[in-house]
Amino acid sequence: MTDLNPADANLAARLPEGVLRPVSDAYLDEPRGRLHGRAGLIAAPRSVEEVAAVVRACAEARVGIVPRGGGTGLVGGQVMPEGPLPLVLSLERMTAMRGIWPEENVLIAEAGMTLHAVREAATGAGRAFPLSLASQGTAAIGGCLSTNAGGVAALRHGTARALCLGVEAVLPDGSILRDLKRLRKDNTGYDLRDLLIGAEGSLGIITAAALRLIVPPAGVGTAMLEVPDPAAALSLLALAEGRLAGGVTSFELLSGQGMDFLRDTLPEVRLPLPQARWSVLLEVGLPEGLDPAQALEGLLVDAMERGLVRDGVIAQSGAQAREFWHLRESLPEANRRIGAIASHDISLPLSDIPGFIRDADVALRQGSDLRIHCFGHLGDGNLHYNLFPAKGRRREEYDGARKALTEQVHEMVMARGGSFSAEHGIGRLKVGDLARWGDPVRLQAMRAIKAALDPLGIMNPGAVLG
Amino acid sequence: MTDLNPADANLAARLPEGVLRPVSDAYLDEPRGRLHGRAGLIAAPRSVEEVAAVVRACAEARVGIVPRGGGTGLVGGQVMPEGPLPLVLSLERMTAMRGIWPEENVLIAEAGMTLHAVREAATGAGRAFPLSLASQGTAAIGGCLSTNAGGVAALRHGTARALCLGVEAVLPDGSILRDLKRLRKDNTGYDLRDLLIGAEGSLGIITAAALRLIVPPAGVGTAMLEVPDPAAALSLLALAEGRLAGGVTSFELLSGQGMDFLRDTLPEVRLPLPQARWSVLLEVGLPEGLDPAQALEGLLVDAMERGLVRDGVIAQSGAQAREFWHLRESLPEANRRIGAIASHDISLPLSDIPGFIRDADVALRQGSDLRIHCFGHLGDGNLHYNLFPAKGRRREEYDGARKALTEQVHEMVMARGGSFSAEHGIGRLKVGDLARWGDPVRLQAMRAIKAALDPLGIMNPGAVLG
Asked: For the domain bounded by A97-212, which CATH number is listed?
């Protein structure tokens, strides 16, 4: 630590012993490489008390803090490329499971525990933690909560917010909020938990959380069903919900464009419905006494009679189900290899989705040869609506069009009462979108809360509100 | 309006035409008669714009506002017995359903719509709104949200907070937050919705809400099962959840004391398990292909083999199921007729419940002849733990002991990581409890938020934070 500037050296001397780490790229990147962070110091505290001590020292020194979990966020909330050098506060050493109560369906995890580790711990106790994301091997549970992560089972179990009973957090003044309750109901004042969840580290640092587990369903079934169009997919969802009493865990929309991308980039991925222009990956969790494959068979027959499904494959084994999911989870990698011009994480009222997909398709293709890959968590109204170069062209050729394309997509989404950030958050990449599209009254209230809790503005400066 | 004092007359003149109502007791009471409110003016605006105009006028005149829905709250949030005379803002004229989208499971209701009316509207469209409370005929949906109401189906569907997608609200400065989104996922900044929900009108007035509906399950089954003790009831819950894949909608604990109260006060209520010391009222909602009575039969046999259930009755008809629910819903009336010394709306970590019930029973009976009626939403860890006079004695004889008894109950609850207000909120009756038991860091953050959003302190003065 000999090459620190005097201000950082002064701050470093006031931190708990042994928390500093060498500054390295591992703490300064984000997955898509759009932003590169900077840092004066990297601190990796071992306890909530050490986190509080770091925050207090930063508050005194007026140094910004960028909290960092697994670093998998997609909107740059974990990297600060501009402004005075911040301290990056990594939760990597707070990885303990503080306790598990299978009989109450509760687990208390420290923020640095990976989502994968939380899921494994729950499974090891005969329970399940139903938050499920492609990046779960790296994503930390603290980051999942701070960004209110969504994923493929939110339809049934909600986003991260719905799976959290209580948090421990360090507030911007260094005080420790101890609210790790294992309670389903607690109406004793303002909902600070849900305020910290989704605040992307701009109101405090979540250091641990009491998480809600589930008893795994007796039977799980998985199917891929070809649908004539997105409207039929939505009718299929309603039909499935009616037949299965809330038993639909996942309902993912897949498109022919995605199949083409997989063929081109990951030819080893098997495609059960290779010709489908639109299809749905459906997972159900059902009670004892119902055979999941039979229940899905019944749904398939019913849906085909109604013209909602053209063809379908019901997984006959866990291996086949994993194969379906492998296809779904390979889509982001295929996208990466093709190279998007622009990606959009949007949500819409469910009944607006068919109209949006139709109209956006027409509007965006007008005078353009781009390819549209639209897929995602249809059951949640959450689409990943991504634009790609025509075959044989490079994304750079569209550099001049990128901004206008995103503007056009977001405009169509907002006109239909949708959201320009369904599950990824604001971070730094969508600060401009929030300023542009956010309700002014809402923004004013957010700024008032930020100023009240973080008057020095040291918590993740520039994130969310800019 | 001729008998107004000059200040109120001045304010009245600045309100939208026709919003004033005569001051009457109907706006000043609460169900248990513990507090009686006062008011300078009663206003019943017809639109969010009129609510905003009233709030702006009150802000200018520095007059406090007490929002009022159905007036069924149990902690005095709707009545202000002390301080400068407030304006009571009744939502009684905002009762429109603004829209319903059955295909997306969404309904938008104005705040004054009763919970019953919301439920009927959902049912009329082939859907269901799963919030269910004894007072639903009177309780307004705005009040249900402002107090984050719980009820008998929170185990499966969550409290009011979990059933709300977006709100329209008037903030303390009279600005209108327009956030009536019909989206499942929207990560665009701080969670103001959940901050307003449960704030009991102290941060703003919810004027409308986008509510989440469900597709009703194909089959519903209801049973009353006698259990040896509360610990067995909890094991039964875990067994049922494992067998039924999250299909348990309600799991209510009933006690022999409650049966005795019903015998004494409402002898017409039929008791299916008249001798049971502890029993459970269980409701399940199941997929097509499973007969609910058969599924409950299977659970009953399994549970009896494990020694978790001694006896049971499975409803063979809707009429019988309603009879079981009638019993459950008659308990509050029986309690009223007996006359409680003290009532407690507590929650505990599930695995602490048997120990709490055992220890509290011993502690409270020491040197006392009181009767304990412990019942409630066991699946949520939420008990109504109420103390009654010995048979033949009057509650007034225990007046001197009341405060110490409540203190003792809350102390035992808090020592086990529980809550002194699980579903009723703070209102005015539990302000002292919040100050006493609330985490100081949490209270400080709450006060900072209150000061930031309501610097004049006009929104429900004295509620929640005192």
From this structure: 3.30.465.10
